[in-house]
Amino acid sequence: MSGKTLLMVGAGLSGAVIGRHLAELGHRVTVIDARAHVGGNCHTERDGDTGVMVHIYGPHIFHTDDAEVWAYVNRFARFIAYKNRVKTTVGGKVYSLPINLHTINQFFGTAMRPDEARAFIEAQADTTIDDPQTFEDQALRFVGPDLYEAFFKGYTWKQWGCSPNKLPASILKRLPVRFNYDDNYFAHRFQGMPENGYTAMIAAILDHPGITVELGRKVSRAEAAAWDHVFYSGPLDGWFDYDIGRLGYRTLDFERFTYAGDYQGTAVMNYGEVGVPYTRITEHKHFSPWESHEGSVLYREFSRACGPDDIPYYPIRLVDEREMLGDYVEKARAERGVSFVGRLGTYRYLDMDVTIREALDAARAWAAAEAKGDEPPVFFVAPV
Ligand code: UDP
């Protein structure tokens, strides 16, 4: 065992999981994050006044079909079963999401059974679209114009800042349409919330004698050269000082407010209409239903284009960004001693479970390359 010195830029899920794996193999790991806390955008913090566990950068619900990833998170935190049940307000009425038999019957004022609803929706759907490429085509093909207009069109405009006919179908493919009353937002086998929040879980992952964590400081590319290898989970374009431009992101603004009691009776209430400027309201105490709190902390969530000083959330990946991404990937492939990982390092829309899966795979692939004396990969998953 040679025991390399390794730098993780970023103390989010990618840096923590890769760092832990390689520290357990005997490498010396330093994790540096510009923020004052670990956990990246999964960061949670208990509110001093109400005692509510707040998802500081917006709601995170853990769900996966990956048994190894589920075992991994349960090693570092106690998970409590949680089902994400989302509601949406449209035209002064509240509906169930994802679109299911209840939504369809509520919306059309019917009492259809599954087969009837399936035939009814199929009759509304545009069946001439056989290979939907855009978000709009995907919606028109699978739910038809009425449900699309009510539940997806306005929300998607607000979320992404452009027409759904400019967005890829893959965004909508995240959401199912169900012809039964199952209102579980995610179809995955394992779903839960860490009892003491995500920050405690990520701190536990980082709690290893081979790992040193430094918070509240930025690390420059020149400084990073002092380590044998760097795993960089910051923005890909940021590594190159944005020298060929900035990759497009959406950022979120959270308007925090409190309420004495139960404001909306559920964790997530979406607002489908463009007339309502925010996309959703989240009531954080409902993400921990095993706790009980009198007071409540809520976020009104607004989405907008990400500026240079904003926190990047969702990579946009439209035509212009794809071209620039290709250029950055080419530059990255010429680098030595660094690997780009995670949502920002590979400029992809990643769920937490996929981030952990990729981090475990990356750590193993790096260790295998190192053992053979091979040059470690710059990317473990191709971003384009
Ligand atoms: N979406 C929508 N209406 C909703 C919820 C979602 O149109 O009420 C669309 C929107 O474009 C969003 C996408 O479906 O970006 C994926 O939704 P998801 O809930 O997975 O988004 P996330 O929680 O990752 O923001």
**What is the total tally of β strands?**
17
Small ligands present: uridine-5'-diphosphate
The helix/strand series, from N terminus to C terminus, equals EHEEEEHEEEHHHHEHEHEHEEEEEHEHH
Strand percentage? 15-25%
Query: What can be said about the biggest beta sheet?
Result: 7 strands, mixed
Radius of gyration: 22 Å
Number of helices: 12
CATH architecture of the domain at 5-45 and 71-83 and 193-242 and 317-372, by name, is: 3-Layer(aba) Sandwich
CATH homologous superfamily caption of the domain at 5-45 and 71-83 and 193-242 and 317-372: NAD(P)-binding Rossmann-like Domain
CATH class of the domain at 5-45 and 71-83 and 193-242 and 317-372: Alpha Beta
Helix share, percent: 25-40%
- Outline the low-pLDDT stretches: none
CATH topology-level fold name of the domain at 5-45 and 71-83 and 193-242 and 317-372: Rossmann fold
Mean pLDDT rating: 96
How widely separated are the two ends? 34 Å
Assembly type of the chains comes to single chain
Principal-axis shape equals globular
Strand order of the largest sheet: 8-7-13-14-15-12-16
If you had to describe this structure to a student in words, what would you say it looks like?
The two termini are 34 Å apart. The longest helix is centred in the C-terminal third of the chain and has 21 residues, at 352-372. It is built from twelve helices and 17 strands. Among the domains are: 5-45 and 71-83 and 193-242 and 317-372, Rossmann fold; 86-171, no CATH class. The chain is an alpha/beta fold and 384 residues long. Helix 1 runs parallel beside helix 12. The model has no long low-confidence stretch (mean pLDDT 96). It has a seven-stranded mixed beta sheet. A five-stranded parallel beta sheet has the order 10-2-1-11-17, covered by helices on one side. A three-stranded antiparallel beta sheet has the order 5-9-6. The structure holds uridine-5'-diphosphate (UDP). Uridine-5'-diphosphate binds at residues 88, 97, 151-152, 155-156, 159, 171-172, 174-175, 270, 272.
